[in-house]
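Sample entry (231 residues):
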Amino acid sequence: MTTPKNAVVLLSGGLDSATVLAIAKDQGYEPVTLTFRYGQRHSAEIDAAAHLSQKAGVSRHVVADIDLRAFGGSALTADIDVPKDRTDDAIGEGIPITYVPARNTVFLAYALALAETSGAFDVFIGVNALDYSGYPDCRPAFVKAFEDVMNLATKAGVEGDRPFTLHTPLIDMTKADIVRAGTALGVDYGETLSCYDPTPDGAHCGHCDACHLRRKGFREAGISDPTRYAD
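Predicted structure, serialized as tokens:
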């Protein structure tokens, strides 16, 4: 029997990160999950992440408190309306106002610190370069650059037995591919929350870009969508 390898998995509580957690466990990793309370509009996703982590049998779930509202500049951290009812073409054009400045860079820096103190040389993040909302920090070039930083900027990277690896198993997958993969691994997507503007009771709004891509993913995968939508 092989010994599980430690890994840090960024877990937002959404569809993508829940799939990544399932993939990491399926590949034999022993995950430490990391969620952020960063000043986002709602806390329901933080609760979803804790539930997903517990259900997956994760022994350590970390919630890090940072306040990206101090910088603003995003509909997720400032008093700016979340775009609704956009077409595929509109979603794929330019960088939307739901982009949180440098968010993945900040998140991965925290994940790197957690990995180094947890004896983990593997970090998993659910970025995607196909069915996504145009965020620059979801591209393969960013992933490669940050992996270089991981190995240049840490004691473990310089003196460790092996290099850090930044795993992005969803990077080349469509949302339908992701739904199929997670379903095969037993992910209960009804317990995930992807919405940018959920209702007070945690239902998906059904109209933001995240809801649009989520609905499209289930539809194209031919799998029944278990999501609770407000509409």
